[in-house]
Records
---
Amino acid sequence: MDDYRNKVEEAVTFLRDRLREQPGIGVILGTGLGGIAQTLEEIAAFPYTSIPHYPASTVKSHAGKLILGRLGGKTALVMQGRLHLYEGYSAREIAFPIRVMARLGVKTLVISNAAGGLNPHFFAGDLMLITDHINLTGHNPLIGPNVDEWGERFPGMTEPYDRRLRQLAAEVALAEKIPLHPGVYAGVTGPSLETAAETRFIRAMGADAVGMSTLMEVITAVHMKLKILAFSAITNVNLADAYEATTLEAIIAAAEAAGPKLARIMTRTIEQL
């Protein structure tokens, strides 16, 4: 763990020496949602590969760039592209950028992802406000020795998604006349998509959407005592009894179409923080 901690601190030092402003907000942009970065007033940008020990994104539509900019009038550190378990990264490696953000002064983390809808009332292109999650990955970034300076050994997960931020986002969506469904997100490893039987099982557990990201980041952020707000762009609807195949291209296209709506909600919400 000392080696991992040292690597985090080396990345923090590299960025701190180059950031002209201290970010208070962190943002993670998921599959097909990287275009939201275009709404930023960019101050500086760093390819992941230029930051010491920072894992590089390998997925199509993930630019792999860390951007310092202003979003909603606030200084934000934005990940344009994220990391996934299915890329071969460990939970601890996926946690790395969140550790770095927190050590740089980020207090609020806003997360977006692309997800398959399980709720029969959802449609492709809808937005979901994540109220809770179910971790079906079998992974946890907190396994191993704990760094007490970062967080407690057994952090509670009673309410990982901040109640005040969720209420604020819901009010913004209502004012903007953008439907925003509250729902539970189920996280799986991927990269294979779910079978009809798996879809039926996950829905029966109480999930409204399913995806392959977000949970390692959320658990880490809870450990680092960050406030969390998270959204899913519903890219397709998985109804077990009327199952239809989809493709990565279709998923990216649906997420990109939902991007402008999500950008408006995120920006307006951040304005009020």
---
Amino acid sequence: MSISAAEVKKLRDITSAGMMECKKALEESAGDFDKAVEILRISGAAKAAKRGAERETSAGIVSHDAGALIELLCETDFVAKSEDFLKLGTQIAAAVKAAGAKDSAAAAALTLSDGKTVEQSVADMASIIGEKIELGRVANPDGDVAVYLHRRSADLPPAVGVLVSYSGSEEAARSAAMQVAAMRPTYLTRDEVPADVVENEKHIALETAKEEGKPEASLPMIVEGRVNGFFKESCLLEQSSVVDSKKTVKQVLADAGTTVTGFVRIEIGSA
């Protein structure tokens, strides 16, 4: 049976076992989650990983290869900027691009040039260095992609990576990627915002206006204005452009004959 990346991640989050171990356990249990946990407990995979389960991987790097983006996590900046760690990130990104892997579970199973899987290579480095090291998020969209990597400090490797899928001008798309890095939009357009999120924003706007003592007759207009403000902050195409603050990102892209169809933003230390 087919095991989804979400199921693998859920089992990994609970047991702290490796992604491939979790996938194998789910396959062996035919998707029975509780049985998969039991299999890992018996095999010792969960127990072996427990030592580092509470340690936080708040540092790391974002590496890319021709539009494939990967997140490699560790505990300290000292390790994040080490030559071997940077090299492993580059190798994983290249393998992801070459194989067309679309998520972390698929990436973990890939074989690198030394014959080891990504998962084994990460585990080996963790053992040698003595820090908890994890493969984080993976993004590898199809089609034309503009890439932007951002360093928080000149002496540290990139900690923010953005991919923007587009048609048209690569320069304009890269400017949009810089916008995503700086302004942290969550959605491309307001049409992508889930209905429950919109309703929650309306509720907050309404209750806040009431607390402020706004006139009852003015409440619908106030709520509409504040929800529109939410869209302008959270939707990329509605944000004020960092290139031209008098225009929205959508207008700047249109002027450049460019259409953005999606984006991915990965930042070390953020979910």
---
Amino acid sequence: MNVFTAALAAALVVAWAVLVIVAQQLNPDQSPLSMGMSGLARGHCPWVMKSAFLCRGGAALMLLIALPAVVGVAGLTLSGVLAFWVWGVASAALALIDTDMPGEPPSQMGAVHITVAMLAYVCGVVGAVVLSVVVLRMHALGGASVLALLLALAAAVTMVVQFVAFGVAAGEGRTAAEGAALAAAAGVATTAVTPDAAAPPAGVPPQLTAAGQTPPGARSGRAPTVRRGPGDRARDPLSVFDALAPYAGLLQRVFVGLLMAWTLLVAVGVVRSY
């Protein structure tokens, strides 16, 4: 039974990778560099990415069933098992919770999707690290035990980096949206009072306005341009991470790929232990 579930976990990892590749090929308009994988479940043939979510969750749960074969039930820690169980269940649940696409107004469903995804990521890392320590301490997988721990730690680092990248990307999106709204509002305000109808400020010679020049303090009809100087960038604590924003999607794929590689490594190790 344990051999079967371990082999099934490994097969589900492979199926997940194939499905993600197919989903990306079906949606060439979604950049794998900047956009997260969840958007693929809102594009063409959404069932492909939704199936990938189910495979990701199933692989984690099958691995948890197989692990006692190499470390024993007593060797497993409740924190590691519970955390990796949440990673599996939350990953599968993402197939039922759609994310918001760029340009769409934020929705309650999209907020739930982000919350569930972040919970899955954190629990996946915690579970992988804790279980890797257990496997290493018991030498359950031989030399692969060290590699399993390294993969888990690499996933932890990548998770933090991709969180920062998506945070910066979201901040830039909000800034752009707010800037467009301010510009639109300024345009409406200036069209409400035309230069011909506006009286010149006190003390300004009439010939200045007659010549078409804009007197000091008068409206120009254009939204003011706000330039970000070096001082503003230095005061922004996330400015050093601006370069990560265009690669948020790639970082997410690397992170999830590391966790899935960890699952595959441990599953194959369980099979080889027999």
